[in-house]
Amino acid sequence: MINPFKKTFTPKEHEIFVFLTNIKLFSELNYKQLAQFIPHMHVRNYEKNEVVFFRNDPSHALYLLKAGEVSINIDVNDSFESLNKLSGRNSLGESCLLKNSKRLFNAIVTSETAEFYVIPQGNIFSIFDDNVKIKAKMLESLAEIYNDYNASLFKAYRSSMGFFNLKQVYKKG
Length: 173
Fold this sequence. Notes:
By secondary structure, the chain is an alpha+beta fold. The chain is built from 5 helices and 8 strands. Helix 3 packs across helix 4 (132-159).
């Protein structure tokens, strides 16, 4: 039996939902929850070598890479060390889910163009204030992402035979 009061979504909304569910931060949300983000998703296009953000910039927005390629790197002395290259259906700047956070790395477009959905941090926090289930699911996904980063860090440390001082990672202050 069809429920005449059930919310229906447009084909464009379904397309966005499929895109979002392929991104770890949004993968546990249902369509009704995902719909909360659509009004706040702004399309932004970048050109090759354009900076999306720099390390230590305030984390004021979440970037969802729809198309293109982005280099994730850190500045070491006077050069950049590449950490990863991301292509479509990835998120950048997950730290914006945390208050008063800063970017941990640089993000620079390496393809001819790149297209992002950008969601401002203030809009994300408003959604979190209105829906604690969305907040819990997304912060759990963020914790899983950070846990995977830690696992990769420890694996790299072990394979480098302790080339760097891991104790520095855990010092407070």
